[in-house]
Amino acid sequence: MSTRPSPRGVRLTDVGFGAAQLGNLGRVTTEDEAAGAVEEAWRRGIRYFDTAPHYGLGLSERRLGAALAARPRDEYVISTKVGRLLQPNEPPHGTDDGFVVPATHRRVFDFSRDAILRSVDESLARLGLDRVDILYLHDPDHEWEAASTTGVDTLIELRDQGVTRAIGAGMNQSAMLARFVRECDVDVVMLAGRYTLLEQGAAEDLLPAALDRGVAVVGAAVYNSGLLSADRPAAGLTYDYLPAPESLIERVTRIAEVCERHGVRLPEAAVQFPLRHPATASVVVGMRTADQVDSTLDRLAARIPVALWDDLRATGLLIADDAIDTVAP
């Protein structure tokens, strides 16, 4: 698989392995499924792996670290996140919200220096590593002041110490990420769901800023949490983890119809679209099993004619973007 350069010498494969499912997101992932998914990702050429303490209260980090333990450390890139500190629940309270794990801990948003240093130490212990390649501030939507000052300053300190190679933020919105890019010394940002085949709002703020400042963008949630994951949208699909509104289902149906006219499946276009923009360094896709790894990479390899993108723009289903037009075939 090809790689793309990003700041600080970090090279990311076109597709990154999103490890939220290794934390039992939504349902249980077995140990064999988790290990098999990472094994297949490695076999197929994926060398970028993304996780976070949030994913299964540390379970994702532990599983990912174990699965990569025998791999040469300099041959892969790993990112994790800070800002959601895990505090013990005594005693545990039922099952964790969103992840099928015992609620042994609760998450506390904290972008202070002490909290970030503690979070990184705990992540390194779970991963079995002495360094990571990228550290992201995790969803600081309501914490701009702390995250953009103490948070970034602490990450810079860790970058200077060699604990990480690159720093940034990961969010579900583009406006604040654009502020991080314009106002802070960040190297890479992760954008979830806001530059996809369905919506391209980030083309108005984040992506131009990233190109201007030389900051890499990692695209996540390229299926908009499920709405673009099937050939045709069906009842029960979600958008941003909630039931998809009818208006969006109708729009996705129209996009799918254009894809079909060009012999392309909707998920194939969804995986490949963000990579057309020169600011995008990688797309991270959640993968639970080896079969999901294979289907993702098969979608990446599918041939998509330029005429498809032209038709989507002509029908108003895709915005025109001069940055893409100058570099993408």
TrEMBL record:
Coiled-coil ranges per UniProt: none
SUPFAM superfamilies in alphabetical order: NAD(P)-linked oxidoreductase (SSF51430)
EC number, UniProt record: 1.1.1.122
Record bears the keyword Oxidoreductase: yes
UniProt enzyme class: oxidoreductase
A Pfam family that the UniProt record links to this protein: Aldo_ket_red
Keyword Cell wall biogenesis/degradation on entry: no
Keywords: Oxidoreductase
Gene Ontology terms: cellular component: cytosol
InterPro entries documented for this protein: AKR, FDH-like, NAD(P)_OxRdtase_dom_sf, NADP_OxRdtase_dom
Organism superkingdom: Bacteria
The NADP-dependent oxidoreductase domain, residue ranges: 15-304
Record GO terms (molecular function): D-threo-aldose 1-dehydrogenase activity
Name used for this protein in its record: D-threo-aldose 1-dehydrogenase
Taxonomic lineage from the root: Bacteria, Bacillati, Actinomycetota, Actinomycetes, Micrococcales
